[in-house]
Design a protein that fits this description.
Strand content of chain A: under 5%
Strand order of the largest sheet of chain B: 6-7-8-3-9-10
Distance between the termini of chain A: 24 Å
CATH class of the largest domain in chain B: Alpha Beta
Number of helices of chain B: 8
Number of strands of chain A: 0
CATH superfamily of the largest domain in chain B: P-loop containing nucleotide triphosphate hydrolases
CATH architecture of the largest domain in chain B: 3-Layer(aba) Sandwich
Order of helices and strands of chain B: EEEHEEEHHHEHEHEEHH
CATH topology of the largest domain in chain B: Rossmann fold
Structural class of chain A: mainly alpha
Oligomer: heterodimer
Order of helices and strands of chain A: HHHHHHHHHHH
Helix content of chain A: over 70%
Structural class of chain B: alpha/beta
Helix content of chain B: 25-40%
CATH superfamily of chain A: MetI-like
Largest sheet of chain B: 6 strands, mixed
Radius of gyration of chain B: 19 Å
Number of helices of chain A: 11
Largest sheet of chain A: none
Chain lengths: 254, 259
């Protein structure tokens, strides 16, 4: 009985606090404790979402933002992952490349915005470039670190049992580095959204960030709040994806 | 001192020395091991016994001297040998059966089941190593070592981390498998009783040199209550302890004894 109960309540419990806040927010708005001009009520935000959804505008903005995020993530993630692998495995590559990567890593990538605008203009390339750059380093660092910290005893065991090259990599090194790689993945998803939000507020004509900046011009508080909530949901969604991979790839550790 | 090859010699260590940086760990080891013999190497921690085993495994090269296996000088990984480590070194992300089958061609996976059965754990094939006790993990490691039917089994204190009862069980298991499969076994241990209980010959290493090379003439299965059993244990322990007492006085004297 107790088990059934916990199975029902388990998915609900994490949502209690957000629901409670939402409820208070709605109540305060109803009693005009929060002026509409400062913060619109949740229902007003919902209404704005509905209005934008019907016109198809919201979908366009969301898809464009999601597309930028994903393309940037795949490019940056792939480069970071490969560099991490190569530098983690080959000592010569590490010697050759690591110092340069560390130097670039220490530049806040958002500081490059003026330069990026001059290079790529204000269209898609600039945003994707920034996202890719932001995502690259957490993936690189964690992949590299993961490979470096694979138990030396296991590698020696692999050697003693005749594992070489590909076998050694897929059976020992990659699985050994996986938990660290996934930490990098999770971290980089956060960086991905952060970068996108900043990049989209600078200069663009479509995307969630644009929607928010545009709404500011017209004092549409409900749309501004809506965009912020969409970012929050995107963030939660990507976290769920990361967790899914963790469960899938690290199930032996559960 | 020259060693001659006799027919059954399996492994021959000829003036083997090993240094790490300036530190000489092995200072010239002569040892000849017969086909199917069970050798125990004892000594205090840091005496170089594990290093010796790693050299025989071919995991590291000797600084000087040669190791011959089946009359061939060893200069890379020893393909005839499988090693079992003190920590099981099972891959935590692989199930028991996949751990045993590591490095085994797919079509030979059947052999992994047989090997697991030999160590008495066939029920646990799909469990992950973390679900197993320390003793069970070492059984899996033993199964993994034996699945390749090695001519030489190297045991690097594999029972050191186990509790006393599990240890006796594992000793019996290793002895039974050895009697059955007739491989050459080299066991590194700090437990003199364990060495006398299981080995044909006990080699005591001290300061990087062989101090004692003692044949154990006891019938198998060995009885720990046998009067000669405790004589052997006492004799070896005394040699180890002597060093400890005299080392307080002067280090140079011992060198001459052991050299």
């Amino acid at each position: 009985m107790k088990n059934i109960l916990s199975n029902v309540t388990k998915p609900i419990v994490p949502w209690l606090v957000p629901s409670f806040i939402l409820l208070c927010w709605q109540l305060f708005s109803w009693f005009h404790l929060i002026p509409e001009r400062i913060l619109p009520s949740p229902l007003a935000v919902l209404a704005a979402a509905y209005k934008l959804l019907v016109t198809g505008e919201l979908m366009d903005h969301m898809l464009i933002s999601l597309g930028r995020a994903l393309i940037g993530f795949v490019i940056g993630g792939a480069i970071g992952f490969i560099l991490g692998l190569v530098n983690g495995i080959f000592r010569h590559a590490e010697l050759f490349l690591d110092t340069s990567i560390q130097m670039i890593r220490n530049i806040p990538h958002l500081a490059l915005i003026p330069l990026v605008i001059l290079w790529f203009g204000i269209d898609e390339t600039a945003k994707i470039f920034l996202v890719a750059l932001g995502v690259l380093f957490p993936v690189y660092i964690n992949t590299y670190h993961g490979i470096k910290s694979v138990d030396k005893g296991l590698i020696e065991m692999g050697n003693a049992y005749g594992l070489k090259g590909r076998l050694m990599f897929f059976h020992i090194i990659l699985p050994g580095a996986m938990s660290s790689i996934l930490v990098g993945l999770r971290f980089s998803l956060g960086v991905m959204w952060l970068t996108l939000i900043v990049a989209e507020t600078i200069s663009t004509h479509v995307g969630i960030g644009y929607m928010a900046m545009n709404a500011r011009e017209f004092m549409q508080m409900d749309v501004i709040v809506l965009s912020i909530i969409i970012y929050a949901l995107f963030g939660k969604f990507s976290d769920m994806i990361a967790r899914f991979f963790e469960r899938k790839l690290l199930h032996w550790n559960a | 001192m020259e060693y001659k090859w006799i027919e059954r010699t399996h492994i021959l260590l000829d003036q083997v020395k090993k240094s790490y940086h300036q530190l000489e760990v092995l200072k010239g080891i002569h040892l000849s091991i017969q086909q199917g013999e069970f050798i125990a190497i004892v000594g205090k921690s840091g005496c170089g016994k594990s290093t010796l085993l790693r050299l025989i495994a071919g995991l590291e090269p000797a600084t000087e001297g040669n190791i011959y296996v089946n009359r061939q000088a060893l200069n890379s990984l020893n393909q005839d040998a499988r090693i079992m480590f003190q920590d099981g070194r099972l891959l935590p992300w692989k199930t028991v059966i996949d751990n045993i089958a590591i490095g085994l061609p797919k079509e030979m996976k059947e052999k992994a089941f047989d090997s697991l059965k030999n160590v008495g754990l066939s029920q646990r094939e799909h469990d992950y190593p973390r679900k197993l006790s320390g003793g069970q993990q070492q059984r899996v490691a033993l199964a993994r070592a034996l699945v390749h039917n090695p001519e030489i089994l190297l045991l690097d204190e594999p029972l050191g981390a186990l509790d006393a009862l599990t240890r006796l069980e594992m000793q019996a298991l290793i002895e039974a498998l050895w009697l059955n499969k007739k491989f050459t076994a080299i066991l590194v241990t700090h437990d003199v009783e364990e060495a006398v209980a299981i080995a044909d010959r006990v080699v005591l290493i001290e300061n990087g040199l062989i101090k004692l090379n003692q044949q154990i003439d006891l019938p198998r299965p060995r009885q720990r209550t046998h009067s000669k059993f405790s004589l052997y244990v006492d004799q070896i322990l005394k040699l180890i302890m002597n060093k400890q007492q005299s080392s307080v006085q002067e280090d140079n004297q011992i060198r001459t004894i052991s050299g």
